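Attaching the record inline, Q. Sequence:
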Amino acid sequence: MIAWIETIDPEDAGPELDAAYRLARTPHGTVDNVMRAHSLRPHTMEGHLALYRSVLHHDGNRLPLWFLEAVATYTSLVNRCEYSLTHHFDNMRRLLADEPRARRIRDALGAGRPEDAFTGKELAMMRYAGKLTAEVGSMRRADVEACRAAGADDGEILEVNQV
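Structure, as predicted:
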C-alpha cells in the first residue's frame, strides 16, 4: 500500500507521532505503511490500532482468530487489495498452522468459491462477508438469518461484520 499523501517517517516524528508509532510497531520493529498513512493525524493511527486489534486480535472474540483472518483474506480478495491480502493471509496461515489447509482456503477464496474450503456456519459467514463486501446495498435480513440458521449467534455475526 502506498499513500499518495505526505507521510512522516518514524525517525522524523515529533513526540505525539513517535508515541503512536511506538504503539504501531510490528513485532519485527517496523511500522506498516497503512499506519504511516495516518502520520499527519496521529490520533487516527491510535484509533485504527484500537479497532484493528479489537476486531482481529482480541481474546474476547468467540470466533477463532484464524477464521477472522480468513474473513479478512476474503474481503481483501474481493476488494482486490494485494497489500491487505498479503498481511491477512500470512496471519491466517500462521494462526491456522496447517499449510495445506491454508493453501486450500486461499485458492477457494481466490476463486470466489468459499464452499470449496468451508462448510456449515463458517461457509454461511464467508458468504455473508463476501456479499457484505461486494454488494452492501443488496444486503437483506435474510443474509443475517442464513448465518443464524447455520448456527452463528448475533455476536459472531457482528465479529464477521466488523472485519
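Residues 65-162 form a domain with the AhpD-like fold (CATH 1.20.1290.10). The chain has a mean pLDDT of 95.

More tomorrow.
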